[in-house]
Amino acid sequence: MSVGFSTGPAFGNIDAIPDKGFTRTVRARTHVTTFGNGYEQRITQGINPLHNTFNATFSNRTASEMEYIRDYLDAVKGVIAIPFTTVEQDVLKVVCEQYSISYNFDGYYTLTATFRQVFES
Q1: Are 5 and 19 in contact (CB under 8 A)?
Q2: Which CATH topology does 5-117 take?
């Protein structure tokens, strides 16, 4: 697996590799206290203050490939964390709470999904 996720044996072991150009957004969780004259104090929140979100697109996939990806995302229901391999080859736990499908043309579809990093044991 280079980038993306694998659906696992129950879903045909499909490697779901997103199109080139997907985005990664990093958000730092901080707490800011402001004082008079513009002074402020900033501290990180929690033991994992950096959170990643990936917006990935799987364009022009065949109906059968899209069915595997869609069925897998439906099965994990945005609750079960799945391993997502980044461009840097880091494997992060992510959930997919939202995706959309475009029905491009006869038998070819595009799925756009948002994967949010989660931290759990």
Answers
A1: no
A2: Elongation Factor Tu (Ef-tu); domain 3 (2.40.30)
